[in-house]
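Example 3.2
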Amino acid sequence: MQKSFQIVIVEDDKDLCAGLCKALKDESRSIVSCGDLKGAREQIFLTNPSLILLDINLPDGNGLDLVKEIRDKNLSYPIILLSANDTDADVVKGLEIGADDYVTKPFSLSVLRARVNTQLRKSENVTGKETVSIDNYSFDFERMIFTVSGEEVSLSKTEQRLLKLLVYNQGITLSRDDLIDRLWTDGAEYVDENALSVAIKRLRDKLQAKDYIRTVYGLGYMWVKNNE
């Protein structure tokens, strides 16, 4: 069976973004696009992208900061930077911070397609690229295998998404409203807030993680960084 790839394109120029989506989409690829860092984080940290095309200059920040954030979480998604900054120093900085390739604007779509294909070939046989290890926990978000002290734990789809949001944002308080919006994305107009409390409790109990999943009263929840 042909492998399916998901490409996340982060580009605020709507015309260019539409052109990239059209040029890169085929029967083996799904394309997700967004125009800012906020949207990029939501897509990247909730899905399993095969590759990220990332503009450096975005309306709400610098794409290099997102590259660093991704690499600091030990995630090895292939990243191709897009930028009008074409000096050697700019290219070197982008590659040294963790990007896999750097394409300067304007560029040929055929050349970009070739570079995308190269990165997808490199990553096609890589496994375990989404494994996060914290103390006695191992969370493999690619194969959806979660262990505590070597013992596998079964998590529901909602619990898996909740865990991913928490561990990819260690030390950051995620508000209840934000978690509800990002966990229940089926278009439901109303979600009982108690559903989040139940999901948190079940996740804590299954992972024996009461010292890791902290309730920040009046705000939301966080996975405590370094168990501090």
